[in-house]
């Protein structure tokens, strides 16, 4: 694969990361067999970094993908995340990831979706657990993911964090409390102290799909980017992403096939009870309960992250 590489600890891997969110229960809800086979296909094509999370529910997909690929575990980087806050919960989250994916260590474990500096402070115990696990060799590096630019500007200087997973795309789509220029300032701070940065939402949750090639070229070639996580849920997407990252032209056939795939956050109105928990969870302020006591989605703001899906007590939300 003719893709530039990134140094992760002692490993050298292509900087295109297989993101497993889009195939997971939060979004397309693919069976592990189907999703795992796509991961295996990507690994056989040369991808070596898989990104997942406790919240995604994609550990079974990753397990199958690794086992079906025949690729040596030592060649792979596996990153995962958890949003738990206590010391005990984070240790359980690490154990869960290792057990469900049948791994004897996790390369990178991140605090998931840090919403604010206050939220980060509430996770001090969880961070302590990660730092101890790093010392014990259970994880290789400690990271955090966040949609918040204000938080990133401050937390970029926290020397305990080895890697950051932040939203970054050509239009700044999805940034909750800052501009693209401010996000660049945060990433510059990260790079200046020698920490790693890999991109979240390079296509803005699908909203940059019409200019996908240009958007991906912009982010993959950006001077501050170490690696890019891209959600993939078909062999065609794997092939297209590898072509773009290898600076090869994408075939019109693949473009046409992928152009017919659309995603949206769907509200099953018959099930919705208007409790508002989805809106409380949404960092984009993209979902609110209307006058009829039904959750209503603002398509201009929604980035299709799917984080609202598991908090619904009636399972009335689904990305389809």
TrEMBL record:
SUPFAM superfamilies reported in the protein's UniProt record: 4Fe-4S ferredoxins (SSF54862), NAD(P)-linked oxidoreductase (SSF51430)
Annotated Gene3D superfamilies: 3.30.70.20, NADP-dependent oxidoreductase domain
Pfam families: Aldo_ket_red, Fer4_21
Domain 4Fe-4S ferredoxin-type: 263-292, 293-320
Organism of provenance: Spirochaeta isovalerica
PANTHER family in the cross-refs: D-THREO-ALDOSE 1-DEHYDROGENASE, NADP-DEPENDENT OXIDOREDUCTASE DOMAIN-CONTAINING PROTEIN
Keywords: Iron, Iron-sulfur, Metal-binding
Listed name of the protein: Putative aldo/keto reductase-like oxidoreductase
GO MF term (any one): iron-sulfur cluster binding
InterPro entries xref list: 4Fe4S_Fe-S-bd, 4Fe4S_Fe_S_CS, AKR, AKR2_Oxidoreductase, NAD(P)_OxRdtase_dom_sf, NADP_OxRdtase_dom
């Amino acid at each position: 694969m003719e893709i530039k590489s990134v140094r992760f600890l002692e490993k050298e891997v292509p900087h295109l990361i297989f993101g497993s969110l889009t195939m997971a229960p939060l979004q397309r809800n693919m069976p592990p067999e189907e999703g795992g086979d796509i991961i295996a296909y990507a690994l056989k094509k040369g991808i070596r970094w898989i990104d997942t999370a406790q919240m995604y529910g994609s550990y079974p997909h990753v397990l199958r993908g690794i086992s079906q690929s025949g690729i040596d575990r030592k060649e792979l980087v596996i990153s995962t995340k958890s949003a738990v806050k206590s010391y005990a919960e984070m240790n359980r989250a690490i154990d869960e990831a290792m057990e469900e994916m049948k791994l004897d260590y996790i390369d990178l474990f991140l605090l998931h979706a840090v919403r604010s500096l206050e939220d980060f402070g509430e996770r001090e115990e969880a961070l302590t657990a990660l730092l101890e696990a790093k010392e014990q060799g259970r994880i290789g590096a400690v990271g955090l993911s966040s949609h918040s630019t204000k938080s990133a500007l401050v937390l970029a200087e926290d020397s305990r964090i080895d890697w950051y997973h932040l939203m970054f795309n050509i239009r700044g789509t999805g940034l909750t409390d800052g501009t693209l220029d401010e996000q660049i300032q945060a990433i510059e701070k990260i790079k200046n102290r020698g920490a790693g940065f890999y991109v979240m939402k390079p296509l803005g949750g699908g909203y940059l799909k019409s200019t996908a090639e240009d958007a991906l070229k912009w982010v993959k070639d950006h001077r501050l980017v170490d690696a890019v996580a891209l959600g993939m849920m078909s062999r065609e997407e794997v092939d297209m992403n590898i072509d773009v990252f290898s600076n090869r032209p994408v075939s019109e056939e693949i473009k046409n096939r992928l152009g017919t795939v659309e995603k949206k956050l769907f509200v099953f109105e018959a099930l919705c009870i208007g409790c508002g928990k989805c809106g409380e969870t949404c960092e984009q302020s993209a979902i609110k309960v209307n006058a009829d006591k039904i959750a209503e989605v603002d398509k201009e703001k929604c980035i299709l992250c799917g984080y609202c899906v598991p908090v619904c007590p009636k399972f009335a939300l689904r990305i389809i």
